[in-house]
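Q: My labmate handed me this sequence with no annotations at all. I'd like to see what the chain might look like in three dimensions before we decide whether it's worth expressing. Could you predict it?
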Amino acid sequence: MKVAVVGGGISGLTAAWYASKLGAEVVVHEASERLGGKISRATIAGQQVDTGADAFLARVPEGIELCRDLGLGDELVSPATGRAYVWTRGALRPLPDGLVLGVPTDLPALARSGILSPSGLARAGLDVVLPRVARHPDVDVSVADVITERFGPELTDRLVDPLLGGINAGRADQLSLESSAAQLAAACRSGRSLVLALRKQRRSNPPSGAPVFYAVRGGMTGLTDRLCQRLDAAGVWLQTNSPVATLDDVDADRVIVTTPASVTAALVGDAAPDAASALRTIEYASVALTLLAYPSSALTRPLDGSGFLVPRVDGRLMTACSWASSKWAELASPETVLLRVSAGRIGDERTLELDDDELVERLHLELVEAMGLTAEPSDATVVRWHRAFPQYRPGHRALVDRILTDVKDALPGVELAGAAYRGVGIPACIATARRAAEAVAGPG
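A: Here is what I predict for the chain of 444 residues:
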């Protein structure tokens, strides 16, 4: 069995790995000059720092399983701190304990955080007494539709939107509840009050003390580097600078396509025009990730956490700031502070209008306001991810079901995988890639 994988990001490399383990002869076609996709790194102040995803969820098994399969089980590390903040209402305010995707289960802790105004806090507390809203089980709604209905707009704007927006570079009023916040969707179905339903979930699955996130020691490129090493040793042909213009040009019995939705649409369009049209409706957001180094003497407060989120409602350019040298013990230094600052989300393309120097200056001024920094950055690097984050609109799950069915009917032996379909995180991409590999190279 000859299998071609189109796309050399985490999804493509994972698909190649599992297909090769099933005995297939595999070739990977990557259009750019490097493998790994959005898992990448850059040098800042002499340190190698991730410029894409810097961790993955520990409670979802696919990431851990792949790392162990590759011999990286002993190289998994967790953030040095679980504390984080929100920069809102003029101050860095601690995220309260007990949040589930921004939804509180501990209302007194929410009150102590100061994230909501007194009126916003009072409105959020009504969730426990409001009647249940009946919804048709087949109708998907936005996250904001449900959260605002139960807790009011302030909690949506200052907690849920920045948390989900940080994951998806999206907006809570445009993100599918079912596809972007499945845990909240399940809670909505199980009870009248979201607070009470989520508390019940937590009692059924109490925190184990296990890490929430994992990363590979030295950065997440350790995962893609190890994948490439093991694939090469297994005889998989890893071709960079190898764009695929049409599936007819691919010399293989089966094909796994892991490219972004618009590229995939062009590849399947002739044979599956309905799937191609649906793929083109999936929007993507652009993000700029800026690495900044500061002398430790520039700090006026301890960096006692992993960083902070920035609500869209506050109008800032940045969306989040990760205190990388506090979050990851291996990046800690007594002389230098390393920050990863994100900017850009769907509907906000101000970063595209700024060159790198202008972007660094604007973000520095916001950091001065948020953190009280007293010096200019000693080093800076900007990495731009253009149209890199797929947006899951309400109805996304049904849309993906139609796409996959159309492709299966029109192009037997072709499978799709990647962030456009069943989740944007590393474990979700691994899961879609493994399913695709098993479909093309597995028994039967």
